[in-house]
Design goal:
The structure holds two protein chains of two kinds. By secondary structure, chain A is mainly α. Chain A contains 15 helices and two strands. Chain A has one domain: ABC transporter involved in vitamin B12 uptake, BtuC. The two termini of chain A are 23 Å apart. Chain B has a six-stranded mixed beta sheet, with helices on both faces. Chain B is α/β, with parallel strands linked by helices. Chain B contains 17 helices and 22 strands. The chains are: A mainly alpha, B alpha/beta. Chains A and B meet through helix 1, helix 10 and helix 11 of A and helix 10 and helix 11 of B.
Amino acid sequence: MNIITEKREQIIKSGALQQVLAFASLILLVLIFSLSSSNFFQFSNIVGILLSTAVIGVLALGSTFVIITGGIDLSVGTVMTLSAVMTGVFITFFGLPVPLGILGGMLTGAFCGMLSGLSIAKMNIPPFIATLAMMMIAKGLALVISGTKPIYFAEETGFSQISQGSIIGDIIPGFKIPNAVLIFFVVAIIGAIILSKTIIGRYNFAIGSNEEATRLSGVNVHFWKVMIYTITGTFTGIAGILMASRLNSAQPALGMGYELEAIAAVVIGGTSLSGGKGTIIGTVIGALIMSVLTNGLRILSVPQEWQTVVVGFVIILAVYGDILRRKKSV
Amino acid sequence: MSEILVTMDGIDKSFPGVRALIDCKFELRAGEVHALVGENGAGKSTMMKVLTGVYQKDAGHIRVKGQEVHIANTKVAQDMGISIIHQELNLAADLTIAQNIYIGREPRKFLNLFLDEREINEQTIQLFKRFNLPSMDPRTLVSELTVAKQQMVEIAKALSFDAQVLIMDEPTATLSDAEINDLFQIIQQLRNNGVGIVYISHRMNELKQITDRITVMRDGGYVDTVDTAAITIDQIISMMVGREIYQSSKKLKIDDSLPNVLEVRHLNRGRAIKDISFDLKKGEILGFAGLVGAGRTEVARAIFGADRIDSGELFVNGKSVVINSPYQAVKYGIGYLSEDRKHYGCMVDMDVKMNIAVASFQSFTNGMGWVNEKKMTQVSNEVVEKLKVKTPSIHQEVKFLSGGNQQKVVIGKWLTRDCEILIFDEPTRGIDIGAKSEIYKLLNDLVEQGKSIIMISSELPEVLRMSHRIAVMCEGRITGILHRDEATQESIMSLATQRGA
């Protein structure tokens, strides 16, 4: 009996309730849209939703790390674009093999993240400003390097297969789930492992919960912050590759505004912007809620402008629900 | 005899768990400087906060010029002509002198739509003239003034409310000797103008110099009110500390032959730390006594690498070391327990386990960065058991624990890290009596195991009871290091109030 109540308290406190609530809202949304329109709960539409979640989802997964430290990364949108452009440069211009190009794209993201991390940790620049600057630097560089023109990938490289192919469809015929979706879930699992099982994840929460106390515990906070921003950057690089592969081209003008959608997904998923609280599964659900909402409203023929308005209100609702829950638990 | 401005009588004030004021009284006449003295926590500030409407008294009477009054908030106090000048000045640095003085009641013009800068500056000049304050350009930005000048602005601001009662909380704490003389001249002027001044200070020699009467408070109670001319500084000090001292029954042994684990030489940092040198022996508790603001916490943070230092040398176990960050300090086996547990000690939103493990994650992690959850749980459970932390489980968030148990968790953090030198900053602040004695026992156990402890404490009985030796600080300097046998409350207090040359 005692153990059960204790377990229950633990669940409430660990924020698991928030995920249950978020998951319930996701199911509720799916139910409402399914009942409203027969077109919604179709295999092809569900796959479409998942596919449209993949890029924003991976960006949001990366952002989860910095947001748990109490920081923010505004540069993920344009760094994603820069990573895509660099991948294009490596594969199309330099003729490097696809795997090396992918590695180059990921390293580009990681490098940008590391630079943001260094300016935040070593130069003491607030994360908002440092990543705002990185957002502009990456945007500019993407345009400069590409010569403001899209870089196309040759069909024979098979680069487009990274997003558009379907390994699952090859194994189970008829179950053609694109690789992008598979990659999104694999990246989510890797993210969850880093966050919950490794020392980086532990310091991530410690810094977010009380950075000064963590520093005074003899933790090299500067080093770990740089590491965390680098992880976010790496995830951003992966998102860039997914994006480029899906369009079979690197579009240097894209990317602005993605960072805000990513942050929205993280917040809907129950991660606190003040740091110290958050989960990967929450972010996955948050990203799914955003795309289900957009997709469902579109099927119901709600104009796109109004879809954005609805998403705005959903963010308010999600965060207010979280605040109410926190008040209760204290 | 001059008119009585304020009478406070039978004042009681309680906060949850503490009786801050018990049947206290205070009286202020027009044209007198009346000192209010007592140790930290004696209730001086609470008493003045009751008078200025920050707190509401639970019982008692306040009379202003013979009229019984109810001071509901600070505005009411201000309207009655009661003003306070805090130790930390409350000025907007980016506004001018005049703008600061008349903030919230600026003169306007043109249908009250525009501020009248000329009028505000003129009023300020008049104000300074009326009270014979040194003239300053009212358009000067406050950020360009010295602390002494800023204080002058605060005084002028108080006087602009037609203040008849002026409370000054440690006004000389940050002033140079020349500036103090200027301030005293102004206080004399105000006294001649019939203003009553409440003067709170820890500096005994100043009391003799400037005050007419002295009221002593101790442990939230009223002790006595005396004429300054009729009493010596030693008598005041013994009135301030005159409570029973509870000694530990066990005699601590002091062994001068033990090796030094930490040697500090000529540590300097700005105005806060001035040429600090001392040794810490293996297995001893070195107490750090002094008044609040004497620089003890600053010394601890400097040794621990939390703040940078201007100059100085550190030796750990005889070897010269450079410590620029807490990360390095911990590597040399130095742990620091902050006085402010909530902000610098623990992560209140995290569970007990996380808080115990945070300084030692590396030892719970394999080469791949994988955290060994099992080992962490096991160690945390052991610590909780050993220190008798009262918590339902190691998964309880620390914010739900009592102060004493939070402190034990922080101690557990450093035990897990196995530091040889521990710096405890006010280890029993905000902790109830029962938990206090448990913490004391824990400290004694630690030194018996050969650890060395620096214990900063503002509670004299605690310092006397626990320490093998006691370093006393005043204004950034060590004014003396006393052996346990020669230390008394009186000898510590007189070192703690000994201002440097």
